[in-house]
Amino acid sequence: MVIQRIQSLFLLVACVLMVLFILVVPVAYTPDATAASSVTSVYVTDVTELLVINAIVAALLFVCIFLFKNLKMQIKATLLTIMLLVVSMATGAFILSAKMPEGTEVAWTGSAIITVLALVFALAAWSRMRRDHRTLRSLDRLR
User: Fold this and answer.
1) Count of domains in the chain?
2) CATH number, domain at 125?
């Protein structure tokens, strides 16, 4: 099987990045209350709201890959996913800063870059889908 549309690859990369963000990469480090020199890692799976939103985003990105037969639906689903990804980033920043106890300093990790990269790949896929849609419309005018 050969993937002929680059937007499918962009969606796949965005989906893999979101799965990595959910399962592997710590979101923040907080100082451990019991030991002065140790830190505790905070993962997406530790915060239920983030887990739910990011799991929905990853699932929608995966579903969008297989909507290639209905381009209009794929464009709409990808746009919804992009909006949810932005909501996820804003919610993550708000929740992680609000849930930490007073006086606790949070050291952010590079995990925010993963969500930004996923957003960039989703936007690239959406852009390519729109280009395909414009091409199909122009070819329909020629018939």
Assistant:
1) 1
2) 1.20.140
How many whole angstroms from its chain centre is CA 46? Answer: 17
Whether residue 1 is predicted with pLDDT greater than 50 in this model: the reply is no
Give the rounded distance of the alpha carbon of 13 from its chain centre.
10
What is the reported pTM? 0.84
> What is the domain extent for residue 30?
6-142
Determine the distance from the C-alpha atom of residue 134 to the mean position of all C-alpha atoms in its chain, rounded to a whole number: 26
Q: How many residues does the chain have?
A: 143
Residue holding tokens 């020199």?
A: 37
Q: How far is CA 60 from CA 55, 107, 132, 140, in A?
A: 9, 30, 20, 29
Q: Is 136 exposed, middle or buried (0-12, 13-18, 19+ CB in 10 A)?
A: exposed
